[in-house]
Amino acid sequence: MTYGQLEGLINKWNLDLEDQEKYFLHQATQVNAWDRTLIENGEKITTLHGEVEKVKLDQQRLEQELDFILSQQKELEDLLTPLEEFVKDQSGSAYLQHADEEHGKTYKLAENIDAQLKRMAQDLKDIIEHLNTFGNPADPTDPLRQICKILNAHMDSLQWINQNSGGSLFVCEYILTKINLKLS
């Protein structure tokens, strides 16, 4: 082998070595990146494992508390059942007595309102008759004439309310049937 061939071989080996070195450095960089990723993920897995263990402990504690609450609820239901039956037996007569009292109060209130409406109707009727007995004064500034206009306007308003409410306002209907007079 000649010196030129040896030098060519060495140059070739140097080039191969440089290529292998570049490839090795590239592979080492990738391995380092993967290693960092593995370490970070390992830390994340360790953290997650710790959190999962905490959640498991919390779940066990909650299950124990839930069991305790369920047992208390069962005891409470057992205590309330006889009481509910006792109250049910007792409240039947008390409820009927209370309902009778309420019906009586409502009936007395209705009678009272009816009496007041009759008095109001009679008062209005008396006023209208009294005003009509004075006649129709010729002077438009006469206070009596102005009162007649106001009462006529009120009467018209009551009739309008009665008509537009579909006759559902029994008070207006009652007053209008009792008075049934028109001021002149």
Total strands: 0
N-to-C series of helices and strands: HHH
Helix proportion:
over 70%
How widely separated are the two ends? 152 Å
Report the major sheet.
Answer: none
Number of domains: 2
Protein structure class: mainly alpha
Name the overall outline.
elongated
What is the average per-residue confidence, as pLDDT, rounded to a whole number? Answer: 80
Figure out the total of helices. 3
- Name the poorly predicted regions: none
Question: What share of residues are in beta strands?
Answer: under 5%
Main location: cytoplasm
Coiled coil: 45-79
Keywords: Acetylation, Coiled coil, Cytoplasm, Cytoskeleton, Disulfide bond, Glycoprotein, mRNA transport, Nuclear pore complex, Nucleus, Phosphoprotein, Protein transport, Repeat, Translocation, Transport
Family: Belongs to the nucleoporin NSP1/NUP62 family.
Give structural notes.
This protein has about 180 residues and is an all-alpha fold. It folds into two domains: about 1-90; about 140-184. About 90% of the residues lie in helices and about 0% in strands. It contains three helices and no strands. It has helices at about 5-135, 145-165, 170-180. α1 (about 5-135) runs parallel beside α3 (about 170-180) and α2 packs across α3. The N and C termini lie far apart (about 150 Å). GO terms for molecular function: phospholipid binding; structural constituent of nuclear pore.
Please name the defining characteristics of this protein.
184 residues, 0% strand, 2 domains, mainly alpha
Compose a concise summary of this entry.
This protein is an all-alpha fold.
